[in-house]
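tool=predict chain=A
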Amino acid sequence: MSWAGKILRVDLTAGTVKSEPLNMEWARAYIGSRGLGTKYLCEEVDATVDPLSPANKIIWATGPLTGTMASTGGRYTVITKSPLTGAIACSNSGGYWGAEFKMAGWDMVIFEGKSAKPVYLYVNDDLAELRDASHLWGKSVWETEETLKKSLQDPLTRVSSIGKSGENGVLYAAVVNDLHRAAGRSGVGTVMGSKNLKAIAVRGTKGVGNIHNPAAFVQAVKDKKKILAENGVTGQGLPAYGTQVLMNVINEVGGLPTRNHRASQFEGAKDISAEAMATPRATDGKKHLVTNQACFGCTIACGRISKMDQGHFTVATKPQYWGASGGLEYEAAWALGAANGVKDLEALQYANMICNEEGIDPISFGTTVGAVMELYEMGVLTKEQIGIEANFGSAQALAFLVDETVHGRGFGKEIGQGSKRLCAKYGHPDLSMSSKGQEFPAYDGRAIQGIGLAYATSNRGGCHLRGYTIASEVLGIPVKTDPLEHEGKPELVKAFQDATAAFDSSGLCIFTTFAWGLADLAPQLQGACGDEFDTEALAHIGERIWNMEREFNNRAGFTAKDDSLPKRLLTEAVTTGPAKGKVNMLAEMMPKYYAARGWDAEGRPTAETRKRLGL
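tool=predict ok
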């Protein structure tokens, strides 16, 4: 089966921890991780609940392939209702925590209620108990992990925790594990903080067994690892350059959002690219990039480990940031860099470390700062309000504002509410580059039409990982489509969204899909879980998960009007590059997308669709 067959239910109000059997009927219908955790949330939580009230729940969920020998089998997801968007929140993380939790013998942990004081959950195989975390409250993620490992006298303990951002109510606070891997988006860390839950410390020694057909599973895993190794992206590009390999590529196709989407190409892209990270600095002759790093069981190793220039203004008097630490990935480098016009690589790394250390989403943070810089240059915001001159391109402002935001000081409190609330407060709601209240990542929806539709329809708000059409529109995977063409994109987006839901639910990393399709995932799930998980079944399950999430949002009050993009992307044409003259053709794509989905004109799954999917 590969599922452990057990979940933990933690009542924070009562202070109790109980074991209960996993609902295997749901497991076979929704696989695990994203799909299964969301099923539990949808069944147990009123979609209209206040995300920061005790009535909201928050779930850590692994997949059936988490902790196995399948490549990238270290993933877990955190599922809740988002305080940033009010929509479904499901944020995925790698590293080692997910595998450790699974190897302790658990599929999932559900937290409900609110603790009267700070607590953490300690799990050591069958032992699971709430412990006092008063001594951890106010500490960073890094300090929390170090303190717990020392007090538990076990350096192999894996910790999933929040920093001061989650405690202080930053609406896009992250849950961080292994120092710099994060369930980063939608404010899952904010919900954790609202419950006075500081961390989950796990030690698992049982391993993952219960494989349906061990011989078939081992062979399938071996065959699929070979495909990853021989693929140009997963076998060469990502190991060598990480996701940062995209910086110059996306800039060249004219799809790199710059200065709050005022432009779609950044003249400083080369200065903050993967190539720049691997080039010795003029200041000290050392490379920014130290090495790559892999998560549990991963044969791709796209992670970056970097060291800053010790003489840089951000860290010259802060030796605690001189060591090797989690390096810039593409989305963070873009959000902290091009989105704000900042081309100082060292400043980006400093801000990235602070995001890791205190647990905030660098995409939402950086994009919100981009809106602040535009409002500042318009004269809407002043130096006195912000606390510093905040022109586009100011590395000093970026470094200052990340510190203010994670600590909830000064204007940082407003930045911590996200760009939608901030821009609305200051009279320019159209300057928030977001959908459903969640900020866009590093692709311009005018230059890359499919990703614009994916942003507008994403169940968790602006997101690239819910349907990464960049693979097709830019990289030609699995087939090349024209990024400037909007015809055919509704069907493409739907296919990517459904397939991604299945991969996310398996416990494997979405980056494998640069080389794999559902036909590659299927034999691994069949070997581990059962023969019914063939390619057709996985596509069906992925579609079921997508529609389940959609129905949660519908119950929460979202309608077709929320499947939208900012006016800038719909009316202000790109001015340079291959996409010059283009706006996003959302109005033409949306009816076809709804039709492909089997939804009515209001964006609701029809009775026929619900019946077909078993909802």
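The CA atoms of residues 400 and 520 lie 46 Å apart. The longest strand covers residues 197-203.
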